Amino acid sequence: MIYFVIVIYNKYLNNSDSFQSVVENLGDNKIVVIDNSDKPFFLSRNKNDVDSHIAYIQNGLNLGLSRSYNKALKYIGRNSFSDNNYICWLDDDTVLDKSFFKVLSSETRRHYDVIVPKIIGQDGVIYSPNEKGFLKNRLVLNRKSGEINPKKFNAINSCLTVKTSIYRDYVYDERLFLDQVDQLFFDSIRSRRLTYRILNVQIEQNFSQREKKLDKTYLTRFAIRTKDMIEYGKISPCSSMPTAYLKNLLLGLYFSVKISDFSFLKVSIKSLMHPLTVEGGHD
Questions:
Q1: Considering the entire predicted model, what is its pTM?
Q2: Which UniProt keywords apply (predicted)?
């Protein structure tokens, strides 16, 4: 069985591309929806739109990804954490066709520990899976002979499918609100002797930061990202505070140059001096 987990924030569930895709291809699997909406009209409508066979959990506020994922794990329950069950983590805006579900179902029967599709951005670049790097992950699948070293395997949360037995002794670190959640997960499991499977399926996804024209509306989202990057530097066994500070500043500089405005760099510098308390925001 596959548990498809979808986290939404201030959005009508029926407007979620991921939700609609899963409903149309559910089969004998289950859907778990974590609703982090903090606006009553979304909560009311979403509650009325779900069927009884869908696990729907309202929070009334934005818990972020880590806490939401842990809520999903708690709901699924440790009794279901076996080598035969999987969790597929989904963004709310990913369009998935029948081929993804067909191939995923087939590969779960081969009992891989971690299964991922190829995630391709709006610029045609394969961003996930990739290899863990120092300041920047290596996008090796864009090379003709690209092959990922299992000891450096890394991927993003979108469509990440994990055998539930792995969660018997792993919970998501709730100090991370939205970003670096997937990075820390892989940092924590790479030392295990796990099997990875890359599906011969490409999933298209739009990444905010990859837009050709990035404006100041991304600043709030970036402020959350800088906070999580610093926190990640504190807690990851594969990072450090100096690395987090450097990456933070370089990313702020990159975005500032991109829009010819130093707003992003200012956010980076401010985050180093005044850690951000996150109360909202979701991408």
A1: 0.92
A2: Transferase
